[in-house]
Amino acid sequence: MSAILPPPERVWWKQPLDRAELLWIVIALIWCLVMFFMMPYWHLYGKQNLANEAYRMSAEQYSKLTADMVDKYKVREEGGDLKVPVVHPPAGGDAYLIARLWSWYPILELEAGKSYRIHLMSMDYLHGFSLQPENINIEVHPGYDHVITVTPTHPGAYSIVCNEYCGIGHSTMTSKLYVVK
Amino acid sequence: MAVNRMFRTCPTTGLVFHEPAERLIKANAVTAVVFLLIGGILAIGVVLTRWPAVHWLPADRFYQVLTAHGLDMLIFWVIFFEIAVLYFCSSTLLRSRIATPRIAWAAFGLMLFGALMNNYSVTRGDSSVMMTSYVPMGAHWTFYLGLILFAVGALIACFVFFGTLMVAKSERTYVGSVPLVTFGAITAAIIAVFTIASGAIILIPTFLWSVGLISHIDTLMYRTVWWAFGHSSQQINVAAHISVWYAIAAIVFGAKPMSERVSRTAFLLYILFLQLASAHHLLADPGLTSNWKIFNTSYAMYLAVLASMVHGLTVPGAIEVAQREKGYNHGMFEWLRRAPWGNPVFSGMFISLVGFGFLGGISGVMMGTEQLNLIIHNTLYVPGHFHATVVIGTTLAFMALTYFLIPVLFRREIMFPTMAKWQPYVFGLGMAGVALFLMAAGTLGVPRREWDMTFAGNAFPYEFPGAAFLMMGLAGISGLIAIVGGGMYLLNTVGSVFLGRKIATPGFAHVRAAAGVAPAPRPTAQPSSVSAAITGHGSTGIGAWGMVAPGTFSLALVFLVSFVLYYFINWKYLATVWPLK
Question: How far is CA B76 from the centre of its chain?
Answer without folding.
Answer: 12
